[in-house]
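Per your request, structure below.
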């Protein structure tokens, strides 16, 4: 018997642990494909909602936000690259990388969900930022990514030029904050179970088996 589960994947496209968690979750679902069918929705969370469009150097940002030294920041990036490679994702961030405001990306993701292309855009945004070094606050760049994900370029430009889906994104962000979500990725299953962080594939697989059995 196949069990259907709902997954709300709360994340930010500038969060490296989010792509690690997503790839691990997808690998776990692949292992369970005969037993579990997932209806996955990507929900918005901004790590740096007040970040200006010019962004900030990653080492400087991590130092100011978390008190990490440049050496500690480099060690963390090395760990992240290793974990990402283990799930088949190439992480190329270095000491010259920058952190950007991602609100426009979340607006496009909301629209992509309505068009049935949310997963494709989510993966494309992660690759553009972490592998290709794209400027995630640059609207023409975001429109290019949307087009490559199978979305209409002209519509993407229109959305980015205005404030389409801004209210919807902010409403969703507030909802998850009010539910106690303060760090991502946060994976909510069947509106009931929470798995936090970029967990290994085995952890996701075991949790999904238990949740599906309980359902």
């Amino acid at each position: 018997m196949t069990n259907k589960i709902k997954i709300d994947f709360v994340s930010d496209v500038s969060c490296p642990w989010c792509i690690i968690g997503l790839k691990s979750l997808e690998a776990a679902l692949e292992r369970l494909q005969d037993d579990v069918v997932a209806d996955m929705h990507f929900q918005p969370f901004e790590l740096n909602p007040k970040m200006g469009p010019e962004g900030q150097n990653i080492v400087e940002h991590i130092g100011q936000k978390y008190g990490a030294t440049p050496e500690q920041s480099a060690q963390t990036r090395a760990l992240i690259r290793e974990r990402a490679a283990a799930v088949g994702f190439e992480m190329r961030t270095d000491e010259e990388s920058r952190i950007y405001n991602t609100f426009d990306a979340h607006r496009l993701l909301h629209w992509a969900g309505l068009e049935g292309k949310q997963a494709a855009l989510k993966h494309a945004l992660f690759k553009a930022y972490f592998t290709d070094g794209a400027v995630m606050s640059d609207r023409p760049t975001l429109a290019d990514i949307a087009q490559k994900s199978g979305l209409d370029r002209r519509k993407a430009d229109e959305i980015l030029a205005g404030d389409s889906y801004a209210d919807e994104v902010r409403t969703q962000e507030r909802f998850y904050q009010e539910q106690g979500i303060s760090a991502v990725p946060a994976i909510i299953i069947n509106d009931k179970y929470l798995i936090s962080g970029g967990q290994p594939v085995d952890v996701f697989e075991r949790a999904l088996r238990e949740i599906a059995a309980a359902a």
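The chain has one domain: 3-49+104-214.

Regards,
D.
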